[in-house]
Specification:
The chain is of the alpha+beta class. It is built from 21 helices and eight strands. Helix 5 packs antiparallel against helix 6, helix 14 packs antiparallel against helix 20 and helix 15 runs antiparallel to helix 20.
């Protein structure tokens, strides 16, 4: 079983994933076992509210052998257990293509109070796949992380399964399986009208039939393909890609041909190295050996000199020592004189630095520390005083923009309920439809749609309260299964929040409600700041005279400084009498 994982960015939305999973044109059949398009879009909205980079986790699993829908559903639940995800908020879709089935599991990144785990998920998903294959008796599919998976299985106590997975591990790392292209690359080429698996087989066959890069390039050219250096040469030097005549990317050379990068660099060096032909006449072979035989060899065979040229003798460089400046020399002589001065003669101090005792320095340090503590009491402010003031137009515009999808959702659900209610009323007026029982069926449909409308109303109102900061937690997701026992609670909730329901249902009433809520928000912040200042005013008033008294002691003369004692400073110390 092959398991692949991808993360959907929040800014990308769930539209592309929903079209691929729920409306794939190449699938023979699509069965939605759990979840919906609306649920995936709601997970994206939750991730956007939480400020997450990724909103959905897409896990596709394709078994080699046939599995039933129940088996695929159980496998999806085991994947949720491995990632510590809530199985109640998953979307599970089964695709049937060419007689075989594969599944798509979509999980929200935000799990209510934590983010979905993402550490070593590739290895963990492969581990769950190996265990499922062993449990169902399928043939084990080798992967790149079999050694790590076997180690994890031994740590969890699955020793027999670990031995079976260990037997799949290749002897060398080069023999590990590696994907020739990613699922994203395959989707891109499909939209461009290319069959990526067929092109991969073609490139592999051409490389197996070629002996060097030159012949391989010629074979590619015969099929309308070219190989050139990649666009990211600064990050991956030496990487080459294969394209068609229209410039559409097929893939990387090393991935398509399974050639190591080091070996490919050697092939490139051999291709770029020019073939140097050795000359017919070798000059080195005509050189005669000359050997010095006498001490006066250079006198016996003098080198002829040109009479017009005269030998210019170079002068020896003169090393000049740096000269000492006048004031430096006088200072040096004065120091030498001080060294030679008798020890009985007292030294004259000309420095203006006043030397204090260790006790006085320690006393000054304690005074400075006490002043800093009292000054910190004076400088402290309310937690919200340093916050940036709220911009009315910008804040209300943000609220209005965030409420638009919830308004559409509430209006859509209400329209469905109204249409069903109108059909039911019309059926009640017809005697024939009452006798055939169609009116009763329409009544049940209407009551069920009313329950769904009340549930969506509860979700929308909680979202409204969360957006305008009247609710600390995000809204609880919409429940897919509702019974008549839930009706009293939902009716009571609608009565308690009739004002919010009216604002969400009527666009003209929503604007005054948001304006009033903003005024209350600003007033509540101002009241909290005022209450905090009032609660700490007495403490600040007590700190001012304490700082004045401590600074007066710090500026006292030397004689008084040594006779003055400092009392320990308390947080709520009163002024001295």
């Amino acid at each position: 079983m092959i398991v692949k994982e991808s993360r959907i960015r929040t800014k990308s939305g769930a539209g592309a994933l929903s079209r691929h999973v729920l409306h794939g044109a190449k699938n023979e059949a699509i069965r939605v076992l759990a979840g919906s398009d609306w649920l995936m879009r709601d997970h994206i909205r939750e991730a956007r509210r939480e400020g997450l980079t990724y909103g959905l986790r897409h896990i596709a699993f394709n078994p080699d052998e046939t599995m039933s829908d129940n088996q695929l559903s159980d496998f999806a639940c085991r994947l949720c257990e491995e990632l510590h995800a809530d199985p109640e908020h998953l979307t599970l879709v089964i695709h049937q293509k060419d007689g075989s089935t594969h599944g798509h599991l979509i999980l929200p990144e935000w799990q209510g109070n934590h983010v979905l785990e993402s550490r070593f998920t590739w290895m963990r998903l492969e581990k769950v796949a190996r265990l499922e294959e062993i449990r169902l008796g399928h043939a084990l599919v080798p992967g790149r992380h079999d050694k790590a998976i076997a180690k994890a299985l031994r740590r969890e106590g699955h020793h027999q399964a670990a031995e079976q997975v260990t037997a799949l591990s290749p002897v060398s790392d080069s023999a590990k399986p590696r994907a020739a292209y990613t699922s994203q690359a395959r989707r891109i080429t499909e939209r461009q009208g290319l069959d990526l698996p067929a092109m991969k087989k073609l490139v592999s066959a051409l490389w197996s039939q070629s002996d060097r890069l030159k012949s391989f390039r010629a074979a590619l050219a015969e099929h309308g393909l070219t190989m050139r250096e990649g666009d990211r040469a600064d990050k991956r030097p030496g990487a080459h890609i294969i394209e068609d005549q229209d410039g559409k990317l097929i893939g990387s050379f090393t991935r398509l041909t399974k050639v190591k990068m080091a070996e490919f660099r050697k092939l490139l060096a051999e291709e770029q190295q020019p073939t140097v032909r050795k000359p017919e006449t070798d000059i080195k072979s005509s050189r005669l050996p000359i050997r010095r035989t006498t001490p006066d060899f250079y006198e016996e065979y003098p080198i002829p000199k040109d009479p017009d040229t005269q030998t210019v003798l170079r002068k020896r460089p003169v090393i000049k020592r740096p000269q000492m400046r006048k004031w430096q020399r006088e200072l040096w002589l004065q120091r030498m004189a001080d060294v030679d001065m008798p020890t009985t003669q007292p030294l004259l101090y000309t420095s203006s630095i006043r030397i204090i005792s260790a006790e006085e320095a320690r006393f000054r340090k304690e005074l400075t520390k006490a002043i800093a503590q009292q000054q910190a009491i004076l400088d402290q402010q309310a937690p919200e005083a340093s916050w940036k003031p709220l911009d009315r137009d910008r804040t209300i515009a943000t609220w209005r923009r965030q409420l638009i999808p919830y308004q559409k959702q509430l209006r859509k659900s209400f329209d469905h309920y109204i249409v069903a209610k109108r059909e039911w009323k019309q059926a009640e007026e017809s005697r024939w439809q009452r006798m055939t029982g169609r009116a009763g069926k329409l009544e049940k449909v209407c009551q069920q749609l009313l329950l769904e409308f009340l549930e969506i109303l509860r979700f929308v109102i909680q979202a409204l309260l969360h957006i305008v900061r009247l609710r600390s937690t995000p809204p609880e997701p919409v429940r897919s299964t509702l019974t008549e026992q839930d009706r009293p609670v939902l009716e009571e909730f609608r009565k308690q929040h009739d004002e919010e329901f009216t604002a969400m249902a009527d666009t003209e009433k929503l604007e005054p409600w948001l304006q009033h809520r903003f005024d209350r928000l600003v007033k509540a912040r101002t009241d909290r700041i005022r209450q905090w200042d009032k609660a700490h005013q007495a403490e600040k008033e007590r700190a001012r005279p304490v700082i004045a008294r401590l600074r007066s002691k710090l500026a006292a003369p030397k004689g008084l400084m040594n006779t003055t004692a400092i009392a320990p400073i308390k947080p709520h110390m009163g002024p001295s009498p």
